[in-house]
Amino acid sequence: MLIVDILAAAGEAAAPQNKFGFAEALEQGGFIAYATVIILGIMSFGSFYILFTKWFEQSKILRQFNTVRTSFWKAPTLREGAAKLEKNSAWRQLVDDGIAAEDQHAKMTDSLEAHDWLHGSLARSESTINARLASGLPFLATVGATAPFIGLFGTVVGIYRALIAIGIAGSASIDKVAGPVGEALIMTALGLLVAVPAVLAYNYLQSRNKRIAEMLTGFSNDVLANINSKGAVKPAIASAPAKAAPAKPAAAPAKS
Fold first, then answer.
1. 88's torsion region: left (phi>0), alpha (psi -120 to 50) or beta?
2. CA distances (Å), 177 to each of 27, 64, 186, in order?
3. How many CB atoms are located within 10 Å of the residue 203 CB?
4. Could you report the per-residue pLDDT of 166-192, keeping only the tens digit for each?
5. How far apart are the C-alpha atoms of 254 and 175, rounded to whole Å?
6. What is the pTM of this model?
7. What pLDDT, in 10s, does the model give residues 226-240?
8. Per-residue DSSP letter, 19
9. What residues contact 214, with CB distance under 8 A and at least 6 apart?
10. Can you tell me the distance from the alpha carbon of 184 to that of 189, in angstroms, rounded to the nearest whole number?
Protein backbone atom coordinates (compact mmCIF):
# COMPACT_ATOMS: atom_id res chain seq x y z
CA MET A 1 0.00 0.00 0.00
CA LEU A 2 2.86 2.35 0.77
CA ILE A 3 4.33 1.86 -2.69
CA VAL A 4 0.94 2.52 -4.32
CA ASP A 5 0.51 5.76 -2.35
CA ILE A 6 4.00 6.88 -3.30
CA LEU A 7 3.32 6.20 -7.00
CA ALA A 8 -0.03 8.02 -6.86
CA ALA A 9 1.56 11.05 -5.20
CA ALA A 10 4.32 11.05 -7.78
CA GLY A 11 1.76 10.88 -10.60
CA GLU A 12 -0.20 13.84 -9.22
CA ALA A 13 2.99 15.83 -8.86
CA ALA A 14 4.03 15.01 -12.41
CA ALA A 15 0.58 15.77 -13.94
CA PRO A 16 0.36 19.28 -15.40
CA GLN A 17 -1.89 21.67 -13.53
CA ASN A 18 -4.47 23.56 -15.60
CA LYS A 19 -4.17 27.20 -14.66
CA PHE A 20 -6.12 28.54 -17.61
CA GLY A 21 -9.72 27.85 -16.63
CA PHE A 22 -12.67 30.24 -16.75
CA ALA A 23 -12.28 31.33 -13.13
CA GLU A 24 -8.59 31.96 -13.66
CA ALA A 25 -9.38 34.01 -16.76
CA LEU A 26 -11.72 36.24 -14.75
CA GLU A 27 -9.16 36.67 -12.01
CA GLN A 28 -6.43 37.65 -14.45
CA GLY A 29 -8.79 39.85 -16.49
CA GLY A 30 -9.70 41.86 -13.44
CA PHE A 31 -12.49 44.44 -13.45
CA ILE A 32 -12.97 44.48 -17.22
CA ALA A 33 -13.41 40.71 -17.43
CA TYR A 34 -15.93 40.67 -14.56
CA ALA A 35 -17.82 43.64 -16.03
CA THR A 36 -17.97 41.98 -19.46
CA VAL A 37 -19.33 38.74 -18.04
CA ILE A 38 -21.91 40.58 -15.91
CA ILE A 39 -23.13 42.64 -18.87
CA LEU A 40 -23.41 39.56 -21.07
CA GLY A 41 -25.22 37.73 -18.27
CA ILE A 42 -27.78 40.52 -17.95
CA MET A 43 -28.28 40.53 -21.72
CA SER A 44 -28.77 36.77 -21.79
CA PHE A 45 -31.26 36.79 -18.90
CA GLY A 46 -33.20 39.67 -20.46
CA SER A 47 -33.31 37.93 -23.85
CA PHE A 48 -34.75 34.69 -22.48
CA TYR A 49 -37.17 36.59 -20.25
CA ILE A 50 -38.53 38.53 -23.24
CA LEU A 51 -38.63 35.37 -25.36
CA PHE A 52 -40.80 33.43 -22.92
CA THR A 53 -43.07 36.31 -21.83
CA LYS A 54 -43.75 37.38 -25.43
CA TRP A 55 -44.27 33.79 -26.52
CA PHE A 56 -46.93 33.27 -23.84
CA GLU A 57 -48.57 36.59 -24.72
CA GLN A 58 -48.69 35.73 -28.42
CA SER A 59 -49.95 32.21 -27.73
CA LYS A 60 -52.77 33.65 -25.61
CA ILE A 61 -53.87 35.97 -28.43
CA LEU A 62 -53.75 33.15 -30.99
CA ARG A 63 -55.76 30.91 -28.67
CA GLN A 64 -58.36 33.63 -28.12
CA PHE A 65 -58.79 33.97 -31.88
CA ASN A 66 -60.48 30.57 -31.89
CA THR A 67 -63.16 32.03 -29.60
CA VAL A 68 -63.62 34.90 -32.06
CA ARG A 69 -64.10 32.47 -34.93
CA THR A 70 -66.48 30.12 -33.12
CA SER A 71 -68.50 32.25 -30.69
CA PHE A 72 -68.15 35.98 -31.24
CA TRP A 73 -69.67 36.29 -34.71
CA LYS A 74 -72.59 34.06 -33.79
CA ALA A 75 -73.87 36.73 -31.39
CA PRO A 76 -76.64 38.97 -32.81
CA THR A 77 -74.87 42.22 -31.86
CA LEU A 78 -71.31 43.38 -31.21
CA ARG A 79 -72.11 44.15 -27.59
CA GLU A 80 -73.37 40.65 -26.93
CA GLY A 81 -70.41 39.19 -28.78
CA ALA A 82 -67.97 41.30 -26.77
CA ALA A 83 -69.34 39.77 -23.57
CA LYS A 84 -68.13 36.37 -24.79
CA LEU A 85 -64.54 37.57 -25.17
CA GLU A 86 -61.99 37.64 -22.38
CA LYS A 87 -61.50 40.97 -20.67
CA ASN A 88 -58.27 42.86 -21.39
CA SER A 89 -57.72 40.80 -24.54
CA ALA A 90 -56.66 42.28 -27.86
CA TRP A 91 -59.88 41.21 -29.58
CA ARG A 92 -62.05 42.66 -26.80
CA GLN A 93 -60.15 45.94 -27.04
CA LEU A 94 -60.84 46.19 -30.78
CA VAL A 95 -64.54 45.52 -30.30
CA ASP A 96 -64.88 47.93 -27.37
CA ASP A 97 -63.09 50.67 -29.32
CA GLY A 98 -65.33 49.99 -32.31
CA ILE A 99 -68.46 50.23 -30.15
CA ALA A 100 -67.22 53.46 -28.59
CA ALA A 101 -66.52 54.88 -32.05
CA GLU A 102 -69.99 53.82 -33.18
CA ASP A 103 -71.57 55.70 -30.27
CA GLN A 104 -69.75 58.85 -31.34
CA HIS A 105 -70.44 58.11 -35.00
CA ALA A 106 -74.07 59.23 -34.67
CA LYS A 107 -73.00 62.72 -33.61
CA MET A 108 -71.38 63.40 -37.00
CA THR A 109 -73.49 64.91 -39.79
CA ASP A 110 -71.15 64.08 -42.66
CA SER A 111 -71.29 60.38 -43.56
CA LEU A 112 -67.78 60.48 -45.06
CA GLU A 113 -66.31 61.94 -41.88
CA ALA A 114 -68.23 59.37 -39.83
CA HIS A 115 -66.74 56.50 -41.86
CA ASP A 116 -63.25 57.97 -41.54
CA TRP A 117 -63.76 58.30 -37.80
CA LEU A 118 -64.75 54.65 -37.46
CA HIS A 119 -61.89 53.48 -39.63
CA GLY A 120 -59.38 55.70 -37.83
CA SER A 121 -60.54 54.58 -34.38
CA LEU A 122 -60.16 50.89 -35.23
CA ALA A 123 -56.80 51.50 -36.92
CA ARG A 124 -55.56 53.38 -33.86
CA SER A 125 -56.67 50.55 -31.58
CA GLU A 126 -54.98 48.02 -33.84
CA SER A 127 -51.74 50.04 -33.83
CA THR A 128 -51.81 50.17 -30.02
CA ILE A 129 -52.06 46.39 -29.81
CA ASN A 130 -49.26 45.88 -32.33
CA ALA A 131 -47.04 48.33 -30.44
CA ARG A 132 -47.64 46.44 -27.21
CA LEU A 133 -46.76 43.14 -28.88
CA ALA A 134 -43.57 44.65 -30.30
CA SER A 135 -42.35 45.92 -26.94
CA GLY A 136 -39.18 44.16 -25.87
CA LEU A 137 -38.15 43.19 -29.39
CA PRO A 138 -35.79 46.18 -29.75
CA PHE A 139 -33.89 44.83 -26.74
CA LEU A 140 -33.43 41.50 -28.52
CA ALA A 141 -32.22 43.27 -31.63
CA THR A 142 -29.80 45.34 -29.55
CA VAL A 143 -28.42 42.26 -27.80
CA GLY A 144 -27.98 40.42 -31.09
CA ALA A 145 -26.10 43.37 -32.58
CA THR A 146 -23.90 44.38 -29.64
CA ALA A 147 -23.18 41.20 -27.64
CA PRO A 148 -20.47 39.95 -30.06
CA PHE A 149 -18.70 43.31 -29.86
CA ILE A 150 -18.87 43.35 -26.06
CA GLY A 151 -17.31 39.90 -26.03
CA LEU A 152 -14.73 41.06 -28.57
CA PHE A 153 -13.89 44.01 -26.34
CA GLY A 154 -13.15 41.60 -23.49
CA THR A 155 -11.02 39.52 -25.85
CA VAL A 156 -9.00 42.52 -27.03
CA VAL A 157 -8.32 43.64 -23.47
CA GLY A 158 -7.40 40.07 -22.49
CA ILE A 159 -4.96 39.72 -25.36
CA TYR A 160 -3.47 43.10 -24.50
CA ARG A 161 -2.87 41.96 -20.92
CA ALA A 162 -1.38 38.69 -22.16
CA LEU A 163 1.03 40.50 -24.49
CA ILE A 164 2.10 42.84 -21.69
CA ALA A 165 2.76 39.87 -19.42
CA ILE A 166 4.74 38.10 -22.15
CA GLY A 167 6.77 41.25 -22.77
CA ILE A 168 7.59 41.59 -19.10
CA ALA A 169 8.58 37.92 -18.83
CA GLY A 170 10.73 38.23 -21.93
CA SER A 171 9.57 34.87 -23.29
CA ALA A 172 7.26 34.10 -26.22
CA SER A 173 7.15 30.30 -25.97
CA ILE A 174 3.92 28.47 -26.76
CA ASP A 175 3.17 27.81 -23.11
CA LYS A 176 3.39 31.53 -22.40
CA VAL A 177 1.16 32.54 -25.33
CA ALA A 178 -1.47 29.80 -25.68
CA GLY A 179 -2.93 30.06 -22.18
CA PRO A 180 -3.52 33.82 -21.93
CA VAL A 181 -4.76 34.11 -25.52
CA GLY A 182 -7.12 31.15 -25.01
CA GLU A 183 -8.49 32.81 -21.88
CA ALA A 184 -9.09 36.02 -23.80
CA LEU A 185 -11.02 34.20 -26.56
CA ILE A 186 -13.50 32.96 -23.97
CA MET A 187 -15.07 36.42 -23.99
CA THR A 188 -15.73 36.24 -27.73
CA ALA A 189 -17.35 32.84 -27.29
CA LEU A 190 -19.59 34.23 -24.53
CA GLY A 191 -20.60 37.15 -26.73
CA LEU A 192 -21.65 34.80 -29.54
CA LEU A 193 -23.41 32.53 -27.07
CA VAL A 194 -25.55 35.48 -25.97
CA ALA A 195 -26.09 37.02 -29.41
CA VAL A 196 -27.22 33.96 -31.39
CA PRO A 197 -30.26 33.07 -29.19
CA ALA A 198 -31.27 36.75 -29.13
CA VAL A 199 -31.27 36.97 -32.93
CA LEU A 200 -33.20 33.71 -33.29
CA ALA A 201 -35.74 34.84 -30.68
CA TYR A 202 -36.18 38.21 -32.40
CA ASN A 203 -36.87 36.66 -35.81
CA TYR A 204 -39.24 34.07 -34.32
CA LEU A 205 -41.27 36.56 -32.31
CA GLN A 206 -41.32 39.05 -35.18
CA SER A 207 -42.78 36.45 -37.55
CA ARG A 208 -45.52 35.60 -35.03
CA ASN A 209 -46.28 39.30 -34.56
CA LYS A 210 -46.76 39.69 -38.31
CA ARG A 211 -49.18 36.80 -38.30
CA ILE A 212 -51.14 38.31 -35.42
CA ALA A 213 -51.13 41.73 -37.13
CA GLU A 214 -52.75 40.18 -40.21
CA MET A 215 -55.42 38.59 -38.02
CA LEU A 216 -56.08 41.90 -36.25
CA THR A 217 -56.40 43.73 -39.57
CA GLY A 218 -58.90 41.19 -40.87
CA PHE A 219 -60.91 41.28 -37.65
CA SER A 220 -60.86 45.08 -37.62
CA ASN A 221 -62.22 45.19 -41.17
CA ASP A 222 -64.97 42.74 -40.25
CA VAL A 223 -65.96 44.85 -37.25
CA LEU A 224 -66.01 47.99 -39.40
CA ALA A 225 -68.20 46.32 -42.01
CA ASN A 226 -70.54 45.04 -39.31
CA ILE A 227 -70.92 48.51 -37.81
CA ASN A 228 -71.51 50.21 -41.15
CA SER A 229 -74.12 47.62 -42.15
CA LYS A 230 -75.89 47.77 -38.77
CA GLY A 231 -75.03 44.15 -38.07
CA ALA A 232 -76.06 42.76 -41.44
CA VAL A 233 -72.56 41.91 -42.66
CA LYS A 234 -70.61 39.17 -40.89
CA PRO A 235 -67.65 37.01 -41.92
CA ALA A 236 -68.45 33.99 -44.02
CA ILE A 237 -67.27 31.70 -41.25
CA ALA A 238 -70.06 32.92 -38.97
CA SER A 239 -72.77 31.98 -41.44
CA ALA A 240 -71.17 28.85 -42.90
CA PRO A 241 -73.75 26.10 -43.36
CA ALA A 242 -73.48 23.07 -41.18
CA LYS A 243 -72.02 19.98 -42.71
CA ALA A 244 -74.65 17.65 -44.08
CA ALA A 245 -74.94 14.28 -42.42
CA PRO A 246 -73.58 11.41 -44.50
CA ALA A 247 -76.26 9.66 -46.50
CA LYS A 248 -77.26 6.24 -45.31
CA PRO A 249 -76.46 3.41 -47.68
CA ALA A 250 -79.45 2.20 -49.69
CA ALA A 251 -80.97 -1.01 -48.52
CA ALA A 252 -80.24 -4.04 -50.64
CA PRO A 253 -83.25 -5.30 -52.71
CA ALA A 254 -84.99 -8.31 -51.30
CA LYS A 255 -84.29 -11.57 -53.06
CA SER A 256 -87.30 -13.19 -54.69
1. left
2. 17, 60, 15
3. 14
4. 777 666 666 666 666 766 788 888 899
5. 99
6. 0.74
7. 887 777 777 766 544
8. -
9. none
10. 10
